[in-house]
Amino acid sequence: MKRPWRGAPAAAPWCFLAPFLALFATFTLYPLAYSVYLALRQSVGPGVDLYVGGDNFARLLRDEVFWGALGRTAYFAAGSILGQLPLALGLALLVNQRRLWLRGLWRTTLFLPVLVGAAFIAVGFRLIFGVQDGVLNQLLGRFGVPALDWLRDPDVVLNTLVLTGVWMFTGFNMVYFLAGLQGIPGELYEAAAIDGAGPWQRFRAVTLPGIWPIAAFLITASTIGSFGLFDLPWVLTDRGGPGRASTTVMVYLYERGFLAGDIGYAAAMGWLVTLVLLIIALVQLRVTRARAD
Amino acid sequence: MLRRLLDWADEFPPGRVPLLLLVLALASGTAVAVRQVRSAPPRFSVWTFVHLAGEEFQQRLAADPAHADVEVRNLGTAMFDRLALAVMTRTELPNLVEIEQSVIGRYLRGPVEHIPFVDLTERLEREGWFERCVPARFARYTVGGRTFGLPHDLHPMVLVYRPDVLAELGYRPEDLATWDDWCAAARRFYRPGALGTRTWRRGMPLSTIEGYTYLALLWQRGGDMFDATGEVTLDSPLAVDTLERYLAMLGGDPPAAGPALSSMIEDFAALSRGQFLGLLAADWMLAVMQKDGRTLLEGRVQIMPLPAWERGGRRTTTVGGTALCIPKDAGPPDRAWEIAKLLYFDHRSLVERFRTQSIVPLLRASWTDPVFDEPAPFFQNQRIGRVLTELADEVPPVHGSPYMAEGYKLLDAVFADVTAGRVTPRAALAGVAAELRARMARDRAAVARARAGSAP
Amino acid sequence: MRVSRLATYGLLILAGGLSLGPFLWMLSGSFKTQAELMQPGLGRVIPAAPTTANYARLFSQVPFLTYLVNTAFVASVTALLTTLVSALGGYALAKYRFRGQGAVTTLVLGTMLLPGVVLLAPLFRVTLALGLIDSFWGLVLPGAASGFGVLIMRQYLGAVPDALLDSGRLDGAGEGRIFWSIVLPLVRPILSALVIFTFLGAWNAYLWPMIVLRDESNYLLTVAVTNVVAAIHQQEYGVALGGTLVSIAPIIVLFLALQREFIEGLTLGAVKQ
């Protein structure tokens, strides 16, 4: 049990908390409440703003573009998790080997893309993805891979975004896995070796359980991060195009709320997406917990 | 020295890294403060999103001492986002803004009195501009009979081709008077091969994922997404038939057209390698081509009128367009109107615009200027100005609607499914039309309710 | 054994090449002329006719230096303010007992997992009402109250022994003095990590700066590179590549100098595992 110290004025904690509470109330709590109010209103053009009750939500449930955007966002999230995590774990295992020449350099090299913002990447990568003269197709063509229209083929663009995400974030996930691997006591491996376990069995019996909490965290973090995906589809694939092929929920929300000016619809969309995300997170938690037990 | 500095840095309770950032913050903060004190807001601002236009406006206004305080800003496509936010918040509005034709609709919805731009109809009538220009071009910026934008451009569309390639195939430009003629030639030109290789040949690139080329071809035939009263006509039999013929050009054995490449530059490069027989290009694109495709195409290409849908039919169409609009809340409009006319209707500006941006003006009187007879070295000394102005009166009208940008977006969203054969043209266009009508009805109802609510 | 080592290095070289390849391609491209960049084919790693014209144009036609300074200012102030506010708040929650403590903690925890998507629209209206549109403070302040930061700081500050604080009090130091002079030096690693984490986030942010900033002399690098540079050089790609590289270079230099802090900063999320 802690006790209030003599000499520590009762107001002291509130003084320390004051800056945080003031900012938190202004920029998180109040907007949160305000967005409930907004979600019940509709604007048409700059001059008309009226109360519509649950109409925004009713429209959202019927809005095919919204559900399409949600589906694409979920696809990106799933693609990111499946594409990044196994790769990141593999690289972490490689870099974590005890006798590795230039270990620091490899780690640095693989981590470097994490530093670059998506907006910069989108500008830098645009030419790389050209269908006819782009570097990627030219390179793949040498190995006989047929040309893909990375940025303009509606059936391909989402995968282009996933692929770009893999380039950006694999190093990030790798560092997490490395931290997890380094937290596994060496005795466990020794004990397993004494029991006659081979490399694969050691991986299954010692490594995987050891890093599972990290993996669970990364899955949740990737999912939440994916639902905020905006920069890449906005800049790299030209405002969520072609057509709607890379329109994510964030792109659609920005488009409706800030460009078409119906901020009430955007607010309602924000709430619905939060609800969906909450359900996904709960399901993931269930699954990862069950896996851990 | 460095050691002592580091020791001293260690005295800072939060440590070296925060101290480093503190130094950075103080230094950059000083620079920011100095800059913000020095820069005064401009007294009169003009926004555009076209780079060439920005330079040209600035030069034109700088040459006029009366307008020395005008600041022209080229904001790129980000301008549309900036403008939307500025209109929504009624802050930091430009005094005059150049808007792309499909985007203006966003601002024209809702009750007329809430439209954030100055109604130019009376000024245009009083000063006789409707008669002196090609009147069809005002249609895009007009809603409910009121015009909110001042256009300057016609944007006739032509075909860019390599004369040597066409001759080798055994054709002269005048042999290609209809799309059927063109398709026959294109099918003979065709060679198979995968994208990314140098062996394929296609008649011309047509977008398989976006609807803008289809719409341009629909306009050429006299169809449109909306009619003059603003009602949706995208599901008309003419529109359906045109889309079917568009698909027939992309399909067929061998096909008469291929999918558009990733960028204009890639299209230019393929034309220069003789992989495309021709490219569709509006007047402004000829300037882009001369700038960005110089190393690829200079002295190797010419232009010709588009093949017509019917023999003797219209030999051109149009793509794109800009208008100057005056935001209502930005201050008194008279000066903005004068500057708008100076930039858009002044003979000298228009001639200069053709020289730098190859844009054919809306004002009939300017077509007689000698600049339109100058041979263009890039196009093998062809007099491209004459080719374009001769097509000027044939440019079809395109009707404006507050829902134009949404219509484009909806069409784009379904277009790939149409070209892939997953949806029939009839069903796709009917779907887009129905969605547009539903949105329009909903907004009308909301406006009616708001009106009823605000009435005492 | 030899085979596996060969495979290890082979895979690492492949992964490292894929990781660095785009950087090298951008670097080489930024020194190429437009004509060479547009040449079909793979192109050369070392430009045929290297030119610095792209960089010259970047700084002469666009106020790129201004964007660098703006970004440095916003990112450093965001990082410092967020860390300070988090440390203060985390300290109160970790080292004091007071009425309402549980409520504050619950509130912070409850809102921490909210996705940005729900706050975007209302936050814009609030920022507008406070007159912070087109102001750097409109970027700095909304993010400064970080629930994540407070919880992380609370956890680390909880490990500081109470005895140290009490001995400070016995020496007559005020509560603020104790926090600044005794407590902060003990948690320098986490302070550095949090500073770097928020600095990187602010440097790379795109959507919110795009919404908040109006005047293009106030732009940050993300907005400038995607909008202004792209607008002026729609097809002059070397300039865009140069702009991208100049924008990421300071971060990379900082990273090479402070690798440990970076990695700790970016793995903060795992602390609670």
Task: Work out the largest interface and the residue count of each chain.
Answer: A-C, 98 and 99 residues
Structural class by SSE content of chain A: mainly alpha
Radius of gyration of chain A: 24 Å
Sheet with the most strands of chain C? Answer: none
Give me the CATH superfamily of chain C.
MetI-like
* Fraction in helix of chain C: over 70%
CATH architecture of the largest domain in chain A: Orthogonal Bundle
Averaged pLDDT of chain A: 88
Question: CATH topology of the largest domain in chain A, which one?
Answer: MetI-like fold
Domain count of chain C, please report it: 1
Low-confidence stretches of chain C: none
Distance between the termini of chain C: 35 Å
- What would the principal axes of the Cα set say about the shape of chain A? globular
Give an overview of the whole structure.
Chain A has helices at residues 12-39, 55-62, 64-95, 103-111, 118-125, 135-141, 157-182, 186-194, 199-227, 231-236, 249-259, 263-292; strands spanning 41-44, 48-51. Chain A is mostly helical. Chain A folds into two domains: 15-51; 63-292, Orthogonal Bundle (MetI-like fold), CATH 1.10.3720. In chain A, strands 1-2 form a two-stranded antiparallel ribbon. In chain A, a hairpin with a 3-residue loop joins strand 1 and strand 2. Chain A starts with 11 loop residues before the first helix and ends with a helix. Chain B is globular and about 80 Å long. Chain C has a single domain (50-272), classed as MetI-like fold (Orthogonal Bundle), CATH 1.10.3720.10. Chain C is 74% helix and 0% strand. Chain C has 15 helices and no strands. Chain C has helices spanning 2-30, 34-37, 53-61, 64-95, 101-112, 116-129, 137-144, 147-157, 162-170, 175-183, 188-204, 207-212, 221-232, 237-257, 259-266. Classes of the chains: A mainly alpha (293), B alpha/beta (456), C mainly alpha (273).
Keywords:
heterotrimer, A: 293 residues, mainly alpha, MetI-like fold, B: alpha/beta, D-Maltodextrin-Binding Protein, domain 2, 2 domains
In short:
The complex is a heterotrimer of chains A (293), B (456) and C (273). Chain A has 293 residues and is mainly alpha-helical. Chain A is 69% helix and 3% strand.
What is the element layout, followed by pairings?
The complex is a heterotrimer of chains A (293), B (456) and C (273).
Chain A: H1 12-39, E1 41-44, E2 48-51, H2 55-62, H3 64-95, H4 103-111, H5 118-125, H6 135-141, H7 157-182, H8 186-194, H9 199-227, H10 231-236, H11 249-259, H12 263-292
Antiparallel strand pairs in A: 1-2
Helix pairs in contact in A: 1-12, 3-7, 3-9, 3-11, 7-9, 8-9, 9-12, 11-12
Chain B: H1 2-11, H2 16-38, E1 44-48, H3 51-62, E2 70-74, H4 78-89, E3 96-100, H5 121-126, H6 129-132, E4 142-143, E5 146-147, E6 150-151, E7 157-161, H7 163-169, H8 179-189, E8 205-206, H9 212-220, H10 237-250, E9 258-259, H11 264-272, E10 278-282, H12 283-292, H13 294-297, E11 302-305, E12 322-325, H14 333-344, H15 347-357, H16 384-391, H17 404-419, H18 425-454
Parallel strand pairs in B: 1-2, 1-3, 8-9
Antiparallel strand pairs in B: 3-12, 4-5, 6-12, 7-10, 7-11
Helix pairs in contact in B: 3-15, 17-18
Chain C: H1 2-30, H2 34-37, H3 53-61, H4 64-95, H5 101-112, H6 116-129, H7 137-144, H8 147-157, H9 162-170, H10 175-183, H11 188-204, H12 207-212, H13 221-232, H14 237-257, H15 259-266
